[in-house]
Amino acid sequence: xxxxxxxxxxxxxxxxxxxxxxxxxxxxxxxxxxxxxxxxxxxxxxxxxxxxxxxxxxxxxxxxxxxxxxxxxxxxxxxxxxxxxxxxxxxxxxxxxxxxxxxxxxxxxxxxxxxxxxxxxxxxxxxxxxxxxxxxxxxxxxxxxxxxxxxxxxxxxxxxxxxxxxxxxxxxxxxxxxxxxxxxxxxxxxxxxxxxxxxxxxxxxxxxxxxxxxxxxxxxxxxxxxxxxxxxxxxxxxxxxxxxxxxxxxxxxxxxxxxxxxxxxxxxx
Length: 269
Fold this sequence. Notes:
alpha/beta, six-stranded mixed beta sheet, five-stranded mixed beta sheet, 12 helices, 11 strands, disordered N terminus
């Protein structure tokens, strides 16, 4: 009888571990409400396709997301490329898939401003989502310094405001003069009044887009199920995320981001 009970207990323990919820973190580049609305149908689709319960995690700020990610707190996460190289080094996260469309950073200004050329932005007030937003902050700073000798960290006034949407709204309302963002979040902005009041002044070169990466503790079997599900995700769900087509990627594709991080002497948090 004892052996039967022990076998039953072990089988229940194994079963519960197989179906324990996985945490899926999403970098909060937009407001939590918008992200929950666009990602919840994706999570429901993934649960059905992978037969795995998933807890969607949307933090209140990018800095909070970074704190949890760098401690290994997510099983799966959608993150920016700089987040990825740090998370890979600290906790062994491994990139597997990304959107086919590359990442492009942008600088936006108010249409009613007299800022019409990149040189005009010297001595202006900049807004960024966070210090480590890859394309929206790091790439724009990098290219402005390299191409135009505009050193934002040393010579310009700037403020971090938590999300891309906050940047766009801040520039529209005159809180800042120039704002960093990315094409995807600008195109997805649902505040029409804000969007129509802005213009894109500058675009960076393109780089590999945000990866979906797995904690090294997630089994290969579960990783394969998620990759397959994403590779076959319905087009309408991708459109809600303002993505085009999911493709496979690997760690080596983000070596270019490591090179930029070295050139900028960025800390590995």
